[in-house]
Amino acid sequence: MAADQEQEQRRRLLDVASRFPLPSGCRFSYGTAGFRADGATMAPAVCRAGILAALRSVKLAGAAVGIVITASHNPIGDNGVKIADPDGGMMDQQWEPFADALANAPDPDALLQMVLQFVKDEGIPLGGHHTAQVLLGRDTRPTGEYLLDAALQGINAIVGAHAIDMGILTTPQLHWMVWSKNKGTKASESDYFTQLINSFRRMLELLPKDKGGYELAKKLIVDGANGIGGVKLEQIKAELSGLDIIVRNSGKEGEGILNHLCGADFVQKERVTPHGFGPEDVGVRCASLDGDADRLVYFQMSSSSDNKVDLVDGDKILSLFALFIREQLDVINNNGSQVDKSLPARLGIVQTAYANGASTQFLKGLGLEVVFTPTGVKYLHKKALEYDIGIYFEANGHGTVVFSEDFISQLESLSNDLSSQAANCSAQYHSAMRLMAATQLINQAVGDALSGLLLVEAILQYKRWSFQNWCELYSDLPSRQLKVKVVDRSSIVTTDAETKVSQPSSLQELIDKETANYTQGRCFVRPSGTEDVVRVYAEASTQVEADSLAKSVAHHVERLLG
Ligand SMILES: CC(=O)N[C@H]1[C@@H](OP(=O)(O)O)O[C@H](CO)[C@@H](O)[C@@H]1O
Ligand SMILES: [Mg+2]
Hints:
By secondary structure, the chain is α/β, with parallel strands linked by helices. 42% of the residues lie in helices and 18% in strands. The chain has 18 helices and 19 strands. A 5-stranded mixed β-sheet has the order 1-3-2-4-5, with helices on both faces. Strands 7-6-8-9-10 form a 5-stranded mixed β-sheet, with helices on both faces. α13 runs antiparallel to α14. Its EC number is 5.4.2.3.
């Protein structure tokens, strides 16, 4: 870097850091999904995330990097920031310690020294010919605009960095844009919509004509959590052939507060209808998104006498996707067709300890390979990439399907071969085309409630399944989640994909002892990465037992660490 440029770089960093001083007592940690806190206190962390994203882009030869300003399903007053890597996934975990250090740098000088040292250690070619490119998106929160400005100032503090504000978006849209831009494919919002609409239409064109049986009702009510997902769905719903979508909690003025008594997190945890649903909706298929539309669950009211719902969570969405993909692979590989073509594929299912035990048993019972990672999409996504086809979901409804490049190119060449032969009306050809359409429909950058919803709808139509058929795939084991406030949640250390506590060791012994008292009992505790609590999860053969197991373990946590 030329001396005058270096001077300018130093000046800009000192300048921006003094504009966003860290309030005393504030401590940020790049947790499960980036930095999160009360929106009004987030500006210093968001500005520093801007610096970080620009550095990351320079390090990666000017590839586009993303910043999303959102606190997902958390209350409207909260906000957060996370960084998307050039592949559209979460930022490489190796940079998280630096993210933490940078966010907590106590004063401008400390921040400057930290950046200069990091740039040196990482060999980041500041001032070279690579400029940085950072795409920004935010959700509908009132603090979003102000935090966007903080992020822009952070990005612009790196010489040569270029920020592109993509506007108010769902989190997965921004991830998709980063992914697409770096692949060199079309990456605007209208390209995203076009891809969704076209690939959904193609899935429907490929429905078997002669299957008979149940005809899926066109009506689908979607709870938009009063967030950005409902807004976007309203924009495209008229173009979604074969579906009659009604959006509630759509985020329109006066309809309600973001994530308040609505949204995927609420429905999944409380198992009751969101705000705005009533007895007239009994028997109608419903879906619920979270505030930034990266989570999806389905539900249906079975009776008008209470507001309880039958829930289809992430585990069952995963199971539906796995069944569909496996079926297409089976048809392609061993249906005895005239064309001797095969498509070898390693199919992997990735879950976390929060997956209902019944889902894991169901998936393993199908002969599928099921593996576990710690909580957080960054772990699940990475694991899924190890397969030709990786399907991952958190029970709360965040997940997607990823296909390896090698698999997609084999699928493409198989489809081409089949289409040019007499076999182009064969079941094998149709299955290959369906898989092709699915690779286009599902957002491979990250879990995406809108694309996930369309894939669900297409598969239900393909399988000629009602909501009830889907729901009855297996019965969830009763479970309970509790939160416990402790002095220092980081004093709990876990191992084995968070299923065991390694510290304090006495805690695991107590959990084991309690769990042994219950039929089909399973219980684990872990510190949350997004809230200042310890989470307790318990499963058992009845609800009363699951509640009791969770409660007794919560007591132990309180007693030992409270
Ligand atoms: C039990 C649970 O639902 N945990 C959620 C929650 O993480 P915690 O680390 O548990 O706070 O928020 C994450 C980000 O949205 C999500 O990935 C994760 O699944
Ligand atoms: Mg979310």
